[in-house]
Records
---
Amino acid sequence: MREDVETVLARDPSIASRAEAVLHSTLPALWIHRVAHRLYRRRHRIAARVLTNGARVLTGVEIHPGARIGRRLFIDHGTGVVIGETAVVGDDVTIYQQVTLGAVGWWRDMLRPSGERRHPQVGDRVTLGTSATVLGPLTIGDDALIGAQALVLDDVAAGQRVLGEPTVGRPRKRSGIHRADSA
């Protein structure tokens, strides 16, 4: 827990003290997940789900109790973060809001052998930008950067940057309609 507080203090510029870091909105989700994951591994699946459902309601972060989470995970503005059952998240990973580490869909997952991974494996020191969606049993290599709004469906090499399509501004079309007060 102390390491988690230090991680928040180091990575969130809006946090000015350890006392403030303890109150970071996503720490309860991470701490509850750790307890739930232990219960899940001991086959106390219902108790684990009750805990993680409570964490989701409290923080907006949904981490399945089966997911394996590394050390010093930092979830910034965690609302809408979803981490699936067979996901593996490495050490020193940063996740921003609305990120999904999900499966491709039940219609494919039901065809996989029981116990096979359905969710992404994320390496160490990876950054997942706002609204990034990473689907399927793919691997994201160490030190990769997944940009905001990127959709990732294939493996990402170590150190690679995957960026979403940037918005392009276009001139506004003039309509033939004029406001009455502009005449």
---
Amino acid sequence: MNEQIRLARGAGQLAGRTVMVAGASSGIGAAAARLFAAEGAAVVVMARRGDRLARLVEEIEASGGRAAASAGDVVRAEDVERGVAVALERFGGLDGAFNNAGYVGSVFGPLHEQPQEDFEEIIDVNVRGTWNCLRHQIPVMLAAGRGAIVNTASPAGMIATGAPAPYVAAKHAVLGLTKATAAEYGEHGIRVNSLVVGTTRTEMLSSVIEAKPELESAFVARQVQKRMAEPQEVAEAALWLLSDRSSFVTGSHVAVDGGILAI
């Protein structure tokens, strides 16, 4: 896949840069790590499943890319700090970050039927996780005088999509963090944007559909294109936001949603 990307696109949009990808063990995060490496970046991949990260690093290196793994949970500030340290120690800096870790919850239904522990985990992963990433990535970028960050959000961060209420609240918060950090650090050369990601064929979504098969047709029906995205399609949008091709874009919420927000 990496070599095909090189041949089709030409490497170089992230040449010479180091990019951290949180939530990189599968789906959108793994696709993004492969793409960023194929475009010249040294990639630091972070997720809880260290075995998958190790295989991803091997794959990237076998294709001629540069990568390092830092197993950890974005909910734990010390794990994120360690991931940033890996970027500094292995590659000498941190130029970009794709904060992609997320959790939708295990119970789809009315708010009063959702367990307290689900609410806490959804808020922890999506909000605290994004906060931890920003808090440890930004100082390194401030010292360098430049950087680009992309946070993964959702149409649920803009409208009530039918997703669990805690997830809707959490993704609204991610958009708020994106706007606030973009405003605070824009004059320091740091751009911060979010991807509003529609229904994408990932492991997390597959687990939801496995629990409630009737949701698959409902997910597709909401999209103007009447299909799910593939992780690679979302990764391409993240690449654009991290590259200089989006140099005058910050504080924006870029919809990669198949048209959910159009109707």
